[in-house]
Amino acid sequence: MIHTQRPPSVSGSIDDPLAAVLRPSPGESPHDKELRLQREADAKRISDRIDEQLSIDRERYKKSKQDVRLLLLGQAESGKSTLQKQFQLMYNPTSLEEERISWRAVIYFNIMRPVRRIFEGLDAFGDSDDDDDLDLPGSSKIIASSSDLTQLSPELTASGSSSSPLSPASAAAEDAQIALLRSKLSPLLAAESSLADRLSGGLNVAGSGKGNVYVRSGWQARSLNLPFGRSRSRGDSVTGGRTSISAARSSLDNPPTGAGGDLLIEEVARLVDQSKDDIKQLWQHPAVRRLRARRKLRLEEWAEFFMDNITRVCSSGYVPTTDDILHARIQTMGVAEHIFDVAVHGRVVTWHLFDVGGARGQRHTWIPFFDDANAIIFLAPVSAYDQYLEEDPRTNRIDDSLQLFTQICSNPLLKKVHLVLFLNKTDVLQKKLSRGIRVKKYITSYGDRPQEFESVVNYFKAHFTQAHKRNNENKRVLYTHLTSVVDTKATKSIITNVSDSIFRKYLEDAALV
Predict the structure, then answer these.
(1) Is 328 annotated as contributing to ligand binding?
(2) Compositional bias of type Polar residues: which residue ranges (predicted)?
(3) Is 345 labeled as ligand-binding?
(4) CATH number of the domain where residue 359 is located
(5) Residue 28 and residue 33: Cα distance in Å, rounded?
(6) 49 has binding-site annotation
(7) DSSP conformation letters of 231-299
(8) Is 87 part of a structural domain of the chain?
(9) Does the model's pTM come out above 0.70?
């Protein structure tokens, strides 16, 4: 048996040592006692608040484990942000209504950019009658971005197909007209950089395409002076939902565009109103129509949409329509989180939708969101067969999209994630095929297959399906949809179907069915 001896005590007391620390000093005055008790009460209140917050955080964490996390992935300009707007329109229309006026600045910028590109195209080509034999990857002889070609009407194609050169007098007259329009529109173009700085807050993204403008997540809330990073009102219905944009917070908030308005935006609104007739004249000018018909000028589909609606969107008192917001284009830096309450099969579940930047320089930001993801919607723009990455003019956008999809399928963190594929921009694909833009010129493996929509889309679908099969050890089902996410009616039906399939998988994983 081992015997131990109690260590000698200095005082012989076995009191709690903490009690000794808290014991008042023998000579404590009434005033000192009052101060001591006040400090103890303050410390108790702080401790209670910490305990309460810890309890709230624990409950919130438990609840969040039951939420659905949906990632929207795809290359830049694949339609992710437009799809996010469709989710917002379907599950939280109130928040879209709150943000409506903030999109005005983006739409004005979406008008300024194509006006500048038109003048650049006229400067580069003038009245050149060269055929479209320089339409090659990275060609500096084409005024373009990585976006789609302009949608040419049959009338435009016919008017621009004439090979008859202009007479010297006609050419001189057109040059004078263009010079006058350039002079009239110079104040508008001079405001472009200021508007870009206002939207972006000076953001620069490494590896992004030249001339692109990025905004920080939550720019709508900042521009409207709304609470940033907080949940918006749920609304009365279970689909009213809430939206929170909480990633990539910035300390450089943009000046608010509240009831008093933003002086810069109001000045731009005045300029576009004054310039709308000149912009319309430029857009319809024979020299510009010839440039577009020869495919020497490439504009995004959103640019053509706004140029075709120039009188309406540039008029005084303009408020963006939902269709305008769906077509508006601005690239977001970082990851934007949107939260919705979704009712499926009589049960309401909170969905966290993550819209992440698709530019090559931003794709590393996806990885932290893979761990807890329940589902992915991957958007592949099938209309991009004749386009190349701005970041790498040697890489075809279809090839880049396929490589990116393969990486998603093979990522070990995502092996059990519900996977949905949107072959997007089918409307633009149909227009390109109807104009005779040959697939095999850009996708040589397409060979002599028919230049028809069904054949082309099935060819691309087969390649994405094969990439999935090669990386599908868990026998995961791939749900594929042909989409045009600017089409609200069709997209609403697809979202309903996708939500249902994601929810069923969610229940299966939770062992509830």
Answers:
(1) yes
(2) 1-12, 240-254
(3) no
(4) 3.40.50.300
(5) 6
(6) no
(7) PPP--SSTTT------SS--SSPPPP-STT--HHHHHHHHHHHHHHHHHHHHHT-HHHHHHHHTT-B--
(8) yes
(9) yes
